[in-house]
Amino acid sequence: MIFIEDKQMVIPGDVLADKEYQSGRGTFKEDDKICSSLVGLVAVRDKKISVIPLQSKYIPKRGDVVIGEITDIRFSMWNLDINSPYSGILPASDVFGKEKRDLNKAFNVGDVLFLRVVDVDEVKKVKLGLKGRGLGKFRDGILIYITPTKVPRLIGKKGSMINMIKDETKCEVVVGQNGVVWVKGDPSMERVAEKVINMIEEQAHTSGLTDRVRNMLFELLGKEIPEKEEKPEATEEAADEEEENG
Amino acid sequence: MIKMGVTIIPEIIRESLNNLVKNGERPDDRSFDDYRDIYLETGVISKAEGSARIKIGKTQIMVGAKPQIGEPFSDTPNVGVLMTNSELIPMASPDFEPGPPDERSVELARVTDRCMREAGVIDLEKLCIIEGKKVWMIFLDLHIIDYDGNLMDAAVLGSMAALMDTKIPEAKVVDDEVVIDPEKKVPLPIKEKALMCTFAKIGGELIVDPSLEEEQVMDTRISIGMRADGSICAMQKGGIHPLNKDEILKAVERTGEITKKLMEHLPQNNQ
Amino acid sequence: MITIISNEILGKNSTSSKRADGRASDELRPFKIEAGVLQRADGSAYLELGGNKVIVAVYGPRELHIRRLMQPDRAVLRCRYNMAPFSVDDRKRPGPDRRSVEISKITSEALMPAVFLEKFPRSTIDVFIEVLEAEGGTRCAGITAASVALADAGVPMHDLVVACAAGKSEGEVVVDLSEVEDKNGEADVPVAIIPRTGEITLLQSDGNLTPEEFEKALNLAIDGCMKLSEAQKEAIIRRYGD
Questions:
Q1: Best CA proximity match to A171, nearest among A188, A180, A184
Q2: Which of A164, B182, B190, C192 lies deepest, with the highest CB count within 10 Å?
Q3: Which residue ranges make up each domain of chain C?
Q4: What is the pLDDT of residues A41-92, one digit of tens each?
Q5: Is B186 helix (H, G, I), strand (E, B) or coil?
Q6: What whole-number distance in Å separates Cα of residue C179 and Cα of residue C173?
Q7: Interface residue of B44, B88, B91 to substitute, partner C, most C CBs within 10 Å
Q8: B28 touches chain A (CB under 8 A)
Q9: Is C24-240 a CATH 1.10.10.920 domain?
Q10: Domains of chain A, residue spans
Q11: B94 in reach of chain C (CB within 8 A)
């Protein structure tokens, strides 16, 4: 038995289904029932029920790419704020190898970096690294903060949403899995991108978003809003969510 | 959305905001003399004799005024007392800590108090009940519940509105004893209106009503309290960078027009 | 948006009541709950119940900087119940007093059983309850609003804890004592429950009751909780509704 519909909004304590179903993310099992632990949208995949939260904090996971800000320089490492209950460290050895060098010659407090989560240990020490394509320090641009669980929505199916923003604003956009977004381009275009991204953050749980984002972009850019495309938007939207929730 | 729990401002944010302002723009498309949306409501707390809820943008303060009978200060035996207190409660910002008022909180209360007092907002002589013995003391409490920049102007606007909303019980003297009639309430004697206008210096420009985003990168700040007739009743410079004379005089000049518009948010009549 | 409920609409349905405001013995004061009322906080809620006005902010889970408080296997949940100086008839001196310290403690204990604290070891979840206006029953109002604020912040929970008091006033066992009833009353029993399971997470009793009266009060309080529980859910749904 299932008591809710796919994509329905639920809140903590809502009973979602009985024992025929499996308990996925954002749910818990109590007696023979699957219950929601979050405010979010239900995602039913085969016999597995999950709840995609509308609001959440970023919990670091090995392999994630995140945007962090240097908050302190220590003896052999930098401390970084990664928009999470757990701060991160970047060991000096990751940047200098075995060489002994002055840490603040490389990065200073207030610098913003694109990094990879290398390891999260049992005491929640988050080790970060810079090895990988595109990782390193950002120069110029602006930062926008969104709820981490809305990152897939911002990216869209195969990057459709983010690419539309990039194409229309001619900005570089980098999205950290911790919900921090870096945008660089013409200053007025940066602000357009910021407005659009904030709108996606607010309306991530609604349908027809791709359409509205396109209209908003065109309006802000002073372009004529094109006639509705032949392809029915609803199916594309559904496909978007399919991928994000999977 | 504002990043939580961070006091260090990313360098790139500082740069981009400075450049934006140098270009004559602001993050939320306001002009340099524009306030954010202002929402003001009075009489929101029935238990307080006067109250107001003020929102400037997302900054939100609850102001309550409560009268008590007390002794006047010995050097001013025939005038009532206005006491202003503010609390930056930890609800309002991830950076506010529980505990006794810190220096930011004390500055806010004292600047608000000076602005009201020096402008002569309340006719304090009328609050004297028995000279040298009994006067009304008005406690003005500022409860900051959401901090999104420019607390000063919100505090003064909210305080002004709360005082205009305040009604105190009628106090009579019978055989040298104070007799209070809680059924008969009279409005606080308001004889002047004063408001405050705060500028932040960013990218060499002075912009009015800084949002939190702007405050976090500003070099310095100047707040100017002005009465309805355009005279200055209080000023406070804050921040570690200096200002030059010209900048200050220009700010004063701009305050005249801006305050006039700000006054329109106050209730028209307090009687 | 905060609007003010006037107390005049109280007790329209029960003219025969002995209660000061004309309510039936099982009737709550008018109430409303709103979620997401603050900008800076991770989650927030506003609640009015009769003349009570309570606002709650939640921050977290966030980094805990005080090492001695840190729990290796779970988050700590800290509550701070505070009354605004203008919230009561005689101005309250700012800062914590013994009463607010005790209420803070039992509030965090009332909420903790419902929160999946084990998901966020070594962090803290901070709940700030501000009483803007008090008219009897603020601790329960604070707990009810706090659950909504926690849900709004995206904190995973088993359920939304909800609280309501019952007590004895003018010799009658009644729910949701008003300030007047509480001051002249014989007993006050605040109760918080996990509604889905019926488990009780807060229980106090102040005053004299026979065991029978206590049972009646407990049942009335639980009934009251269930009514408020619906309003909690609606508040969260409304926050995201179209």
A1: A184
A2: C192
A3: 24-240
A4: 999 998 999 999 999 999 999 999 999 999 999 989 999 999 999 999 999 9
A5: strand
A6: 15
A7: B91
A8: no
A9: no
A10: 9-53, 65-137, 142-245
A11: yes
B25 touches A: beta carbon within 8 Å: yes
B6 and A111: CB-CB below 8 Å?
no
**Would the CA dihedral through C101, C103, C105, C108 be positive or negative?**
negative
Using DSSP's 3-state secondary structure scheme, residue C103 falls into: helix
Which chain C residues are Cβ-neighbours of B62 within 8 angstroms?
Answer: 84, 86, 132
Residues 6+ apart with CB under 8 A from B102: B88
* Residue A230 scores a pLDDT above 60: no
Average pLDDT over all residues of chain B: 93
CB contact under 8 A, A187 and B20: yes
**Nearest Cα to Cα of residue A64 among A107, A114, A136:** A114
CA dihedral C85, C87, C91, C93 (to 10 degrees): -30
Sheet holding C52-63, edge to edge: C31-35, C43-49, C52-63, C123-133, C76-83
Tell me if chain C has a CB within 8 Å of the CB of B145.
Answer: yes
Nearest Cα to Cα of residue A54 among C153, B165, B19: C153
> Which residue(s) pair with C139 in the sheet?
none
**Residue whose token pair is 């969104």:** A146
pLDDT at A102: 80
Do the Cβ atoms of B260 and B226 come closer than 8 Å?
Answer: no
If you search the block for the tokens 């008018």, which residue do you land on? C30
Residue A235 pLDDT > 50:
no
| CATH 2.40.50.100 for the A9-53 domain, yes or no | yes
> Does the beta carbon of B41 lie under 8 angstroms from any beta carbon of chain C?
yes
Q: What homologous superfamily is domain A65-137 in, according to CATH?
A: Nucleic acid-binding proteins (2.40.50.140)
Quote the pLDDT of residue A104: 77
Note if the bond before C61 is cis, omega within 30 degrees: yes
**pTM across the whole model:** 0.92
Q: Pick B45's closest partner by Cβ from C38, C128, C132.
A: C132
Alpha-carbon distances, residue C180 vs C4, C99, C185 (angstroms): 20, 19, 8
- What is the ipTM metric for this complex? 0.92
Quick check: B51 contacting C, CB < 8 Å?
yes
Any idea which fold A142-245 has? Answer: Ribosomal Protein S8; Chain: A, domain 1 (3.30.1370)
Q: How far apart are CA A22 and CA B97, in angstroms?
A: 43
Q: Which residues pair with A143 in a beta bridge?
A: A182
The two structure tokens encoding residue B38: 């202002």
Residue type, B255: T
Q: Are A11 and C237 a contacting pair at CB < 8 A?
A: yes
Instruction: Write down all domains in chain B, each with its CATH number in brackets.
Output: 11-263 (3.30.230.70)
Q: Are B88 and B103 in contact (CB under 8 A)?
A: no
**Nearest beta carbon to residue A110 from set B1, B3, B11:** B11
Question: Residue A37: is its pLDDT beyond 80?
Answer: yes
- Same topology, domains A65-137 and A142-245? Answer is no
C contact chains, 3+ CB pairs < 8 A: A, B
Q: How far is CA B70 from CA A40, B81, B184, C93, in A?
A: 55, 9, 20, 15
Q: Is the dihedral angle over the CA atoms B1, B5, B10, B14 positive or is it negative? A: positive
